[in-house]
Amino acid sequence: MTSPNTGLRRTALVVLAVGTAVGMSACGAGQISQTAGQVAAVDGGQGSAGELYVNDLVVVLPETGEARLGFVASFTGTGLGESISLDRVEIDGMEAQIGQSQPLERGCSLVVSAAEDAEPVPAGDDLCVERTTATLPGADDLQIGTSVPATVSFSNGDQIEMAAAVIAEVPASDEYTRPVETHSEGH
Fold first, then answer.
1. pLDDT of residue 155
2. Fewest beta carbons less than 10 Å away: which of 56, 61, 78, 121?
3. What is the pairing mode between strands 45-49 and 129-136?
4. Is-above-0.85 flag for pTM?
5. What confidence score (pLDDT) does residue 4 get?
6. Residue 98, Cα to own-chain centre: how many angstroms?
7. DSSP SS3 for 5
8. What CA–CA distance (Å, rounded) separates 153 from 160?
9. Residue 58 near residue 64 (C-beta atoms within 8 A)
């Protein structure tokens, strides 16, 4: 003969086990795991349309002076066809001022340099990469560490929409000096 308490104990243990499992699984509900595949804004925006690609779109906010843009636009594919020009870049509703550049032929890239002292460089005969610059007047309301909507438009009518990372200017590794006064003095 079995005790009447045995069935009650078994039921209690099953309810406790199920409750523990539900509670443990709910701990992570609504949370974003570290491996969820989110890309940090500091990586810059990227997108594509057909055979046009834009990578690493960033807005650099220097301590003084105008904001600068940095990205790479590429026209991939094989075969013959018309070249394509970079027509317009709009960041958070503001139009960027893009430096001079030649239309992109297939297999070529345009590097828009965000370096402070960057100068346009025409594409060479041996490598199909051209470099130019772009500034963003009126970027005073942008905040470092955020992402803002961006649209890159080309002469063939293609537009690439993405988020542009807003970053602070990164000093060259050999140019940064630590301030003389530090908070650790006197400890």
1. 94
2. 78
3. unpaired
4. no
5. 59
6. 20
7. helix
8. 7
9. no
Question: What confidence score (pLDDT) does residue 21 get?
Answer: 55
Q: Are 72 and 109 within 8 A, CB to CB?
A: yes
Burial of 159 (0-12, 13-18, 19+ CB in 10 A): middle
Burial pattern 167-187, b for ≥16 Cβ within 10 A else e, equals bebeeeeeeeeeeeeeeeeee
End-to-end CA distance of the chain: 75
DSSP H/E element including 9? helix 4-26
**What's the full length of the chain, in residues?**
187
Regions of the chain short of the pLDDT cut 70? 1-43, 79, 120-126, 171-187
Q: Going by C-beta distance under 8 Å and a sequence separation of 6 or more, which residues neighbour residue 42?
A: 58, 145, 165, 167
